[in-house]
Amino acid sequence: MSVTFDNVSSATAAGVASIQVTHTASGANLYMLVAATGAFGINGSVYNGISMSSVAQVSDGFSTKMAVFELVNPATGAHTLSVAGASMRGIGAITYNGVSQAAPRAHMASATATGATNPAIACATTAGNMVFGVINSQSGTPNPGATSRFSVNSNVPLQGQDIIATGSPQTLSWSSSSAANFWMIAVDISATASGSGPTFVYCRNLLGVGT
Where are the alpha helices (DSSP H) in 59-186? Predict the structure, then answer.
C-alpha cells in the first residue's frame, strides 16, 4: 500500500497562548502531523481531547521556534485541534491515509539555515513512503515534484510540503527572496505493509461430515 494525502487545515494568530482550528479526518490507517511556530516556545498539541506526541523541536538557542507533533489513528470526522505555547503564531495540520499504525515514522530530520536564500533539509527515506517537510517561511516554491500543502502567513510564518519517497535521501528545499534564518523539520512517513489486511481461509469439507 502507499501513503496518500487526506486533508489539511491551518490557522494563524498574533502572539496568543493557544491556537485552535477544526480539522476533518477520514479514511483508514490514519496519521496526523501538526506543525507549529511560536515566538517564545511551544508546549504541546491536543486533538479531540487526546495529547499528541512530540516528533521534533527546533530552537534558535533561546526558545523553541518550531515544533512537529504526531497522532496515530486520529478520530475521523471534524474535531478541534489546539496547540499551546508562549506567543503562538501559526499551525498547520495534515492527515494521511495508508500509514503504518505500528511504526508510522521511518526517519526524521531537523535542520537550521543561517543567512540562507535557498534553505533545504535532507531526510533518509524508504521507497514508497511519503516525506513531509515544514519550514518557518510562508514564501518560496517547493522543490520539483513536491506538493505545497499549507502556507501560514504571520511574523513567524510556516509552510509545509510533501513528496513521494524515492528510497534515497530526499531533499526538501525552498527559495527565499532575501537571506534569513530558517528552521526545518522533515518526516519520512511509513506506508502500511502490503497484505496487512484480514486473512480469509477457505476450508473444504473433504469427509462430507455434516452434509
Answer: none
- Cα gap 130→7, rounded to integer Å: 14
Q: Which residue type occupies 79?
A: H
pTM of the prediction?
A: 0.87
Q: Confirm whether 180 is domain-assigned.
A: yes
26: containing domain: 4-189
**Number of CB atoms found within 10 A of residue 103's CB:** 10
Cα–Cα distance between 190 and 147 in angstroms, integer? 18
Query: Pick from 97, 82, 80: which is nearest to 29 by CA?
Result: 97
Handedness of CA 71, 155, 14, 25 (dihedral sign): negative
Please count the structural domains in the chain: 1
Q: Are 149 and 8 in contact (CB under 8 A)?
A: yes
Residue that the C-alpha cell 509552510 belongs to: 159
Listed in sequence order, the DSSP H helices in 21-146 are none
The answer as to whether 205 is a domain residue is no
DSSP designation for 191: B
Model pLDDT for residues 172-204, shown as the tens digit of each residue: 888 777 788 888 999 999 999 865 444 333 334
Exposed/middle/buried for residue 19 (C-beta within 10 Å: 0-12, 13-18, 19+):
buried
